[in-house]
Amino acid sequence: MASLTEAIARLFGRPKARSTTQEVQPMTKVLVLYYSMYGHIETMANSIADGARQVDGVEVTVKRVPETMDPEALKAAGGKSDQQAPEASPKELADYDAIIFGTPTRFGNMAGQMRTFLDQTGGLWANGGLVGKVASVFTSTGTGGGEEMTIASTWTTLAHHGMIIVPIGYATPELFDISQVGGGTPYGASTIAGGDGSRQPDDRELTIARFQGETVAKVAARLKANG
């Protein structure tokens, strides 16, 4: 005579065996993409990347957009040509889950080099290659003028791509520190370079940059985990 257990199994089917192995989640890929003429944004980009690396399961890549200035003109202007980050190509942006863009301000807008790069992403726009990916922006200015405008005007391009824009708000205490001149906005991290470019990012500005990187990485990882 069949046991009660066998009878129940025939009626409802045998329960599936519980897996003894954990499902491996794919890495969340974060790209820090920047343009830096004098090295200020390069320094900020590395701190952004350091912050993103604090999040488990996140793979961080730092790249820069190609320089469009003539090499001799760049040298004459005192530009920094010895940057370690490799150059990015527009088509590779679709490979990442989040992209954090860094650009100095040019009259309240992104630098022409970043604009030229993003103007080559028409193919990605046409096929929705960046839709739903996380984006954020950081910047540098000479005297502080235009930092928020530069970030917000860059958002416009990212919105056309359907990206999910992540600001930092006032979620880190360094943004309330007004004891000294410095960058930092609720829109994104920033640094003040000085009119002659002699001022370098300080500890407070770099802390905000790391916070931005960590914040974006957390959002991207959460979205990827939830499908």
TrEMBL record:
Protein name: NAD(P)H dehydrogenase (quinone)
Organism of this sequence: Chromohalobacter canadensis
Coiled coil: none
One family name in Pfam for this protein: FMN_red
InterPro entries: Flavodoxin/NO_synth, Flavoprotein-like_sf, Flavoprotein_WrbA-like, FMN_Rdtase-like_dom, NQO
Taxonomy, superkingdom: Bacteria
UniProt keyword terms in alphabetical order: Flavoprotein, FMN, NAD, NADP, Nucleotide-binding, Oxidoreductase
This enzyme's EC code(s): 1.6.5.2
Entries under Gene3D superfamilies matching the protein: 3.40.50.360
Cofactor dependency: FMN
Residues involved in substrate binding: 125
GO molecular function per UniProt: flavin adenine dinucleotide binding; FMN binding; NAD binding; NADH dehydrogenase (quinone) (non-electrogenic) activity; NADP binding; NADPH dehydrogenase (quinone) activity
GO-annotated cellular components: membrane
Protein family according to the UniProt entry: Belongs to the WrbA family.
Binding of NAD(+), residues: 38
Substrates-to-products reaction catalysed: a quinone + NADPH + H(+) = a quinol + NADP(+); a quinone + NADH + H(+) = a quinol + NAD(+)
Free-text cofactor note: Binds 1 FMN per monomer.
PROSITE patterns for the chain: FLAVODOXIN_LIKE
Record: residues binding FMN: 36-41, 105-107, 140-145, 160
Ranges for domain Flavodoxin-like: 30-216
